[in-house]
Amino acid sequence: MSKPPETEEIIGLKYYQTEARGLGGKTRLKYDDFIVEEVLRGYKASPKRVCKGNVSCDKHYIFILEKKGIDTLGAIRRISRSLSVRAYDIGFAGLKDANALTYQFISLKGPKTLPCVLNINDSIKLYFFKCCSKRIVKGENWGNCFLIKIRDVDVSTDNECYRVFEEILSEIYSIGGLYPYFGHQRFGTIRPNTHRVGEKIVRRDWFGAVLELIGNPYPKEDPRVYEARKVFSETLDPRRALRLFPKKFIYERIVLKKLIEGRNYVEALLTLPKYVLKFYVEAFQAYLFNEYVNSRMEKGIKPNTAIEGDIVVGNGLFEKVIRERKIG
Questions:
Q1: Which residues pair with 109 in a beta bridge?
Q2: Which of 183, 174, 200 lies closest to 95 in space, CA to CA?
Q3: Per-residue pLDDT reduced to its tens digit, 161-186
Q4: Do residues 289 and 297 make contact, with C-beta atoms less than 8 angstroms apart?
Q5: Annotated domain spans of the chain
Q6: Which CATH class name applies to 31-144?
Q7: Active site residues
Q8: How far apart are CA 318 and CA 265, in angstroms?
Q9: Which residues on adjacent β-strands are paired with residue 293?
Q10: pLDDT per position as a tens digit, 185-224
Q11: Looking only at Cα atoms, what is the longest distance across the chain?
Q12: Class of the 1-18+179-303 domain?
């Protein structure tokens, strides 16, 4: 098994699962090079079904959130501010990439009359889908559909492209499928450390969590942000760091302001929205899952093999495996 770059290993992606050559090329040069449509409760998030006028729901609205250039939590925060609703009352099933054009379902608490189409800003739009008796909760999405455009590939003909795909799919089949690593959208790309913040929270190392959130700069960060983090790491001076952090770094600035007010590290950290703190802890859980996948790969356990002690989920049923067997 070949090794990926260090930026991948930081988040627990220790091995490439296939050896077949790829297509080469580039993607995500434009937001619509990578389109994601969420599937939830049997429906695909698509803005093709759009009503006109206003709508009123008794309990919960279901909207399709279209976003680009912003992550899901950032979009939720802006929607909350724009509509004057609590971020906690906005339900969503999963996180979607920032560097992409994504569509996902969100729920808003009623009753309140709202337009069928809401233009939050140039990057965020909401399209009414239907009224519902319950909110959307994390993890209930069935999956996602992807439309990915790859530019400047290393193959010159369609036949060669199909041949490369067939080689890749054949290898995947021969090794029993692929393990579902958690990727950068859970940890960050330029600053892949959400799991480290989460680990500090789980261990109740409040100073360490604040330092990981605000300090410890990463090489590819914006120079101004890098300097702000460097200053905080070296001096622990919240006033100096706050002056340097751009306003869009909301969570860092919230904690810094509380430190300036005289709050201790745990008090300052706990002023962050609950869903943000939960996200950090879930990122640490995702990292532990990736490490468990690594241990299975190192032991030669194929993705389509369940070993003693595994829990197999199918058709809503949970089954504890007694002896090794193939699944799927």
A1: 60
A2: 183
A3: 999 989 999 999 999 999 999 998 88
A4: no
A5: 1-18+179-303, 31-144
A6: alpha beta
A7: 97
A8: 41
A9: none
A10: 889 889 999 999 999 999 999 999 999 999 999 999 999 9
A11: 66
A12: mainly alpha
